[in-house]
From TrEMBL, chain A:
It is an enzyme of class 2 (transferase). The keyword Manganese does not apply. InterPro entries: DNA-dir_DNA_pol_B, DNA-dir_DNA_pol_B_CS, DNA-dir_DNA_pol_B_exonuc, DNA-dir_DNA_pol_B_multi_dom, DNA/RNA_pol_sf, DNA_pol_B_thumb, DNA_pol_palm_dom_sf, DNA_pol_type-B. Residues 1007-1078 form the C4-type zinc-finger of DNA polymerase delta domain. GO terms for molecular function: 3'-5'-DNA exonuclease activity; 4 iron, 4 sulfur cluster binding; DNA binding; DNA-directed DNA polymerase activity; nucleotide binding; zinc ion binding. This polymerase possesses two enzymatic activities: DNA synthesis (polymerase) and an exonucleolytic activity that degrades single-stranded DNA in the 3'- to 5'-direction. This is DNA polymerase. Its cofactor is [4Fe-4S] cluster. Heterodimer with subunits of 125 kDa and 50 kDa. The 125 kDa subunit contains the polymerase active site and most likely the active site for the 3'-5' exonuclease activity. Residues 1-11 have a biased composition (Basic residues). Residues 537-970 form the DNA-directed DNA polymerase family B multifunctional domain. It is found in: Nucleus. PROSITE patterns: DNA_POLYMERASE_B.
UniProtKB/TrEMBL annotation, chain B:
Gene3D superfamilies: 2.40.50.430, 3.60.21.50. One of its GO terms (biological process) is DNA strand elongation involved in DNA replication. Residues 33-160 form the DNA polymerase delta subunit OB-fold domain. Heterodimer with subunits of 125 kDa and 50 kDa. This is DNA polymerase delta small subunit. Keywords: DNA replication, DNA-directed DNA polymerase, Nucleotidyltransferase, Nucleus, Transferase.
Amino acid sequence: MNKGGNPRKRPPPPSQNQPSPATKHQATGEAPPPTPMEEDFVDEDVFLEETLMGEEDVESLILRDIEQRQALTSRLSKWARPPLSDAYTSQSCSISFQQLEIDYVIGESNKSLMPDSSGPAAIIRIFGVTREGHSVCCLVHGFEPYFYISCPPGMGPDDISRFHQTLEGRMKETNRNSKVPKLVRRIELVQKRSIMYYQKQESQPFLKIVVALPTMVASCRSILDRGIQIDGLGMKSFMTYESNVLFALRFMIDCNIVGGNWIEIPAGKYKKAVKNLSYCQLEFDCLFSDLISHAPEGDFSKMAPFRILSFDIECAGRKGHFPEPTHDPVIQVANLVTLQGEDQPFIRNVMTLKSCSPIVGVDVMSFDTEKEVLLAWREFIREVDPDIIIGYNICKFDLPYLIERAQTLGVAEFPILGRIRNSRVRVKDTTFSSRQLGTRESKEVTVEGRVQFDLLQAVQRDYKLSSYSLNSVSAHFLSEQKEDVHHSIISDLQNGNAETRRRLAVYCLKDAYLPQRLLDKLMFIYNYVEMARVTGVPISFLLSRGQSIKVLSQLLRKSKEKNLVIPNVKQSGSEQGTYEGATVLEAKAGFYEKPIATLDFASLYPSIMMAYNLCYCTLVTPEDVRKLNLPPESVNKTPSGDTFVKPSLQKGILPEILEELIAARKRAKADLKEAKDPLEKAVLDGRQLALKISANSVYGFTGATVGQLPCLEISSSVTSYGRQMIEHTKKLVEDKFKMQGGYEFNAEVIYGDTDSVMVQFGVSDVEAAMNLGREAAEHISGTFTKPIKLEFEKVYYPYLLISKKRYAGLYWTNPKKFDKMDTKGIETVRRDNCLLVKNLVNECLHKILIDRDTNGAVEYVKNTISDLLMNRMDLSLLVITKGLTKTGDDYEVKAAHVELAERMRKRDPATAPNVGDRVPYVIIKAAKGAKAYERSEDPIYVLENNIPIDPHYYLENQISKPLLRIFEPILKNARSELLHGNHTRSISISTPSSGGIMRFAKKHLTCIGCKALISNTDQTLCSHCKGREAELYNKTVSQVSELEELFGRLWTQCQECQGSLHQDVLCTSRDCPIFYRRKKAQKDMVEAKRQLDRWNF
Amino acid sequence: MEVDSQKLQRKQSIYLSFDENFEIQKEVYRGQQYSQIYFARLHMMRTLLYSLVPNWKPHIPVCKVLGLELGKVCIVVGTLYKHMKLKPCILDEYSKERSATPLVKPHNFMHQDDYLVLEDESGRVKLSSAILSPSVYVTGVVVALLGKETSAGDFFVEDVLEAGLPPQIEQPLKSREDKYVVFVSGLSVGSSSSNPLQFQLLVDHITGHLGDEEEQGLAAEIAHLVIAGNSIEISSGLLNRQNLASTDQSRLSDPIKELDILLTQIAASLPLDIMPGSNDPANFSLPQQPLNRCLFPGSAIYNTFRSCTNPHCFEIDNMRFLGTSGQNIDDLTKYSEAKDKLDFLERTLRWRHLAPTAPNTLGCYPFTDRDPFLIDSCPHVYFVGNQEKYETRLLKGSEGQLVRLICIPRFSETGVAVVLNMRNLECHALSFGTQFS
């Protein structure tokens, strides 16, 4: 859902409403990576006392049913964390832990640690886990929110204190309700320099404004933005610096803490809390200056054994409605808890409403009321104390549902799920729109101290798939089909007996286990923790926030080192936001049967930024170019016309960040080769991946016009250099590698895009092409500024170039054997294509490229088209699926799947698809002139009623385009050859079994051989065909035989997926490729058997 | 030619068919699934195993999979399920990621990571054991297991009880004269490997048209012929075409006609049973129904011609025969291991199930109220057709059961038929060669 964007969207900045500046990039092909619509970073102060429930309330609530709970508590208590050792309880050892979550809360300042301060203050809370698996809540005191403004010239200490008073006065006006005695704590004069533009002087005076609470940064900023009256200067507005940094991130940057690293507090520097605020085993107070942050190296690169809870809930929806928390009960919650680093969960349990038969290896807890189920779950969370909560779509569905349901039921004590004692989870209203579930009001749940990791969000962020249902995602990554129980069946199972509820529980457990398995398979924990470490943001930011905060965090860290400050640029999103994207050389389409060498620029954009020292602080403004009179040998003028100084005058920060990232990646890769321990390998691999992604996202950050610090001079310079290099490479290759130069053939550049150039050297041998490729790469690299480097990586042979960004070829990295078939732009992941297209395209490419059998491919296409026309096609290959995002009235244009959903609702409201469901359909034959959307039909209905499909729709609207794309470079008249040949002449259409003209038809038995009518019902053949008995029988029986085989294979496969031999298959997953075949086999079997039985006379 | 004064008389026998069990008469496809046949199998086998448990392990509680408790020793009866990594899967057809890596050897899908699971109608439990080897067992076998649940949620098996050989009806009197039954399989008329002369020699031999008097005298003692499947081979390409050209029509019907002619010769002189096999024009799933009589217009008019089911069960002179055309054993060789084919035969007898892998990997009709493949009475002769070579062994059961196990080789490839002497259950190969060196 909500792809690419940010789920926590706040009111968008005004710039978004203006025409998108991205249009021009698309025209030129390459747009910067998607970083639009970054939110404005806003802190939100949470006051400790406000979130807590009255102590007495809770005690009484808990006391009320304490007896009922005792049994449960003892059942859960065995899963509690390991007990603390003496060294911990006596506070005699230092505490080091891996932190996972950092937030802050407003509370009274700690008197014992900071005797001088009083009143409310921000307390940083760091949650984490020690090596032994103890949970930690570290309360850090003394860190204050601040930001900078540039100091007006001539401001002395007296002026500053007067300014302080004025500001305090203005702040008091805007924060009337605040109980804080002093809003602006102090103003200091510091020497800093702005990151923007090359400046000759080392530093300038800045004012560091320290405020009492984090939210006051924003209110103070807006006062200064609007302007403030200063004695002697009049009304003056200020540019603020670093005023948009989230408080927790500010703290991390200043204390050198990166996401997911280890923190140590020496013995004696911490004080155990007098009264525990949290459920953590180790809770203590300390000063921010006493924290030791360890860089994630050596032993500190390891992961603590944190507890990962994977859960799933089932709700009993009403027929024909998606479950709603105000109506539909939560009936089961399945939980699996795994220790980080272990491959099996150590807790598996399921909480059910009403009795449920036991499940081997699973703790089944049954309750009579829904309230008990909910409370048992809360109790479980508290006892097991998970550090990370994962699941599939939990952030948008499961968690909000549980909380709203508890509200509906009036279970006030339920939402205490976080680690803070008696603190309710915070629920925020958000609206989100998604293609899968439509626009829906939803809640965002903050569970204090626990990281939420929604696998759906993670997969959507990192992978491009045609469908994100749990079923297709697990089919894609784990290569197994998930059993899918339709939500209308769930209620039936719940209303059955203990056995049927057990069935449901098994299903629910599987759904709870899949996210864990995806997490393991895709190495999400390692990759995300490493990403947090590399970029320095808390882990929770990675999923909930956009790309730019990662770059910003690195930029802030580096700037701090260099004594630079980053301005808070007001987002203007003006027309300056257009610049030319990357270049794509004209593709010379064709089928190349000679090896094509590919020359790639290794991380082109980062290299360009390093090579030409492109940065905010090296950019010279046009005025300065004139004014400063810089010597020409110490500046670079980029092809886009901007001027940057060379490193001799000022080394750029971005190039430095990039250099570090690339060096770190090299190191990580080298270590990876050495590493033996699989866990260590996972960490290092995650790290090198994170470093690569980070290096590539820097360019996007500078180009995101609505981002934090856009600088189009940088991004347009980068792309202009990129274009220049591609052109340069093409020219160089074609000039050097030609017959006049002593080479066998003239080289020809047939295609080039963003960072690669495809060259046909003319040789017909892969090895020779590789050697020439290597030679060319070396030769051309020598002409570029370091570290820009052209690399030879692979040869395509043969190579089918269709158009720009669309090609296919065999990929060779060694001369002996090809590695794989590589395709771009023609793989048919589009979700609105039917499976037939994908199979057809894959098979054709396979035949053309690997078998080198173009005629075979043509023959295959003809046979497939003939099968389609002759109605011999497996229906599941023809099913098109689309998500129903809103009801029919809301769509402006009539769409096939929406119309179908409406029709199905009229037939049977209970099984009709709802908003949020995916609607599969096929296009059927209908009266001439009927619109495509009127011809959509439910595949099941089609199967049951023998409705003829429309082969021409599939021929013209589905398969013709992709096919012609492939064959046009190969065949002369592809269209007439493939789509209008002899094979399209015979057509067969099935007769519908009911409705329409069939109501007037009279049924007669016909001879199996020649279809002549026969009057005697005992006979199979007419007298004319009698002699062909053996042959015709053979045919009938072979049909039956084929069907029987298929029937057996299909239904046993479903048993396999279901994981049970003794129970009927219930699955109705329409995403499963064999669902329709299974149904069809069952139906065909009946008919074939009837035919066969006619022979038994 | 001088006419022999003493005419040879062919031995007669009393024949009884028990194929009823394998016939599909009223059963129809009504959307039923395979769970019911497993249910029926488990039900029947459990009753049987429960009756054996008191003698096997007295005083140990019997429970269902759900009733297992951590660490408590008990006995569970259930259907085995073997989780196999390499087992081919129909879904793979869809996620066709063409790779350059070679496919697994097609004749066996075993892998060292395979493991067994025990299932009853209440649930499943993963088995861990040193004595229950996954390579021996297959999905669908019902056994009783003694063991306990471990903390990992597995069931640790300490002992296994199989149902064992079923009881046998008393052996007929031994004191009779020699009387032979001939078994042949894999005639494959119409295939490139079949040699018409070889088959003709076989026919001539058993009908007594070959050799001297002594040989004819032996032939006269053959009382019955069993053809265990794969008698005809029709190229599959022919049947898939929409409309057959007239030349192809004859290519399709010629082998059938040829077989009919030869069968007519046999049927004219002695009784024969013909069973369908995997290549025959019959249905695919077990039990395969008798080949249609319309295929054999010549031989079908003789009352000595019997078209039977596969599996096939019958009695000759009170001696019980049970056999298949080989699919059940072929499937076991794909999904389990044994030192020879006869071991597989023995196992199926001890499991009391002809085809445990049906329906899981072996096509089978979705029966609703019974499992026809259960063996409730121990045969005296147990044969399978279409094997690579002739093998035989006499199996002795713990309760005095005596079973002759026979693997019948493919005739078209080996030229071997098998002759069984009903007097003493002795067995020998009958080899036909047309090559002279």
